[in-house]
Amino acid sequence: MSKGILSYNKLVSRTQRLIMKYNVPEHWSKTKNEKFNVHTICVLFVLFQIEQKDYRLFSAWLEVTPLLGLQEVPHWTTLQKAFAKVPPILLRKLVQLSGKCKDKIQALDPTYYQTTNPSIGYCKRTGRDPRREKTRKATVVVTKKHKLVADVFVRAKERHGMKYIPQIATSGCFKGRTTLADKEFDSEEFHQLIDDEGGESIVPPKNKKVPVWRTRGEHRKKLKRKLPSIYRFRSSCSESSNSAVKRRFSPVLRGRTFWQQARDLYGKYLAYNLSRDCFSKNYWNFLQSRNAIFFKH
Hints:
Blueprint: H1 8-21, H2 38-51, H3 55-62, H4 76-84, H5 88-98, E1 105-114, H6 120-126, E2 135-143, E3 149-154, H7 165-169, E4 178-181, H8 188-196, E5 200-202, H9 218-225, H10 234-249, H11 258-275, H12 281-296
């Protein structure tokens, strides 16, 4: 296999194994009269995220793709309606399952996605400020070694990052791991929650000029005395992975409603996790060597 080539056969087989492991129902209706079952729709949805085409072009692309073994290529309107029935909570669960690994270090970091994509020329002509465009805040947990997304969570209303932690903790991604986070999560409540889940957290404390004896919380006092050296891996874990997802799968979310945008967001990270192991080995060795040289300098 040449360097940088994605194996679609491996991607499809891995997606099918993940769906079977989660026991996704094969049909939504009791009559089981769907032309394309739920397993096929989930596989098509992952390929749809990988290709980043519109519905018409994706339907045309399937005509020259024999690896699915479809007797008939679905119409683009069929795909649009079928994808709309896939619940976002199912996609988030598949992201969690596909991101399972034995890494002991992970990074927690929020990132923003666009809901609109106006051109710079159009904004200048109409006096529209692109900085005021509406965005969606997503909180992402990425492992250090394998660079897999352990969990991702998004809400309709943007809130402080601490408001998302209880929902993320339900997935069990904090157990037995050291979580690196930025100063947004500098709170004793955050450290205590991670500790209750059976993990460890490292967050640089705010207000460095405040003495230790005036700092609240045992965890925060300990980190203010000495910040562990492994915290330097936070940016290389979370920010680089979020950048890779946005460059590969677009920083713009499809859909007009929140649930449509959430479905597309979870789909991006699911496709990212599943495609990580579907490239050639030489390609990933090349990336690791390039990153090692970059961080060395």
